[in-house]
Structure formats: C-alpha cells, structure tokens
Design goal:
rod-shaped, mainly alpha, 2 helices
Length: 55
C-alpha cells in the first residue's frame, strides 16, 4: 500500500485515508475513472470498426 501525500491529478493535499491510498481525492478519482471508461469505450469502438472493415 502506497501512502500518497498529494492528488495525482490536481496536486492538492490528500486528507482521507482512502484518498491517500488511491492517490486521488474523491472528485479527481471520479474524473479519472470517467476518463478511463471513455478511453476504453473508444478503444472498443475502434476495434469493432476494424473488425467490420476486415470481415
């Protein structure tokens, strides 16, 4: 377990134990999760498009 002192997104001081463990404050964690989900969705869409073009 790593104990982060600052948020990995906005560099603010982390206060809660869960935030220090994740490395993100609650708002930045949510934004980071949303960005990761969007990236994964776009990657899947591209893969489906390429499969349709090949098949």
């Amino acid at each position: 377990m790593t104990d982060h002192k600052e948020c990995g997104r906005c560099n603010r001081k982390l206060k809660g134990a869960k935030s220090r463990e994740r490395g993100f404050g609650p708002t930045c964690y949510k934004k980071n999760q949303e960005a990761a989900a969007k990236t994964e969705f776009e990657r899947n869409q591209q893969r489906l498009f390429e499969e349709a073009q090949a098949g």
